[in-house]
Amino acid sequence: MFTRTHRWTHRARALTTAASAVALCGLPLLSAAPSSAAPLPTAPPAPACVALYESWRYVTASNDCATPHQVQVVYQDGATGLCYALAPRTQTTVGEGYLGTHGHVDHLALCEPYEAQTGP
């Protein structure tokens, strides 16, 4: 013999299962990227003569190259910082440290105008 609680639980379970099925079936449609979207060009990494120093508060870049470079910080979460011009043999603060909103730095990237490299 079924009680009222058992019937209510059975109906609630059926509704939850139906809602989950609808959500899972609609998820691939919502997250699919358009096929005509071209990949965005990514900035090349800074040359090896541009050094990166990371602390809990600041990220500092040092240009030991003979030529000036414009660099930006790329964090591990994908966020990028502002572009900073580094003259030869100079050093400047280029971003917030790992206790900031984006966490640790992944690398320094050039933000000079560059050409996207395409395959053959």
From TrEMBL:
One GO molecular function term of this record is: alpha-amylase inhibitor activity
Q: Which Pfam families match?
A: A_amylase_inhib
Q: Which residues does UniProt assign to the signal peptide?
A: 1-37
Q: Does the keyword Signal apply?
A: yes
Q: Which InterPro entries match?
A: A-amylase_inhib, A-amylase_inhib_sf
Sorted alphabetically, the keyword list is: Alpha-amylase inhibitor, Disulfide bond, Signal
Q: What is this protein called?
A: Alpha-amlyase
Q: Which organism is it from?
A: Streptomyces longwoodensis
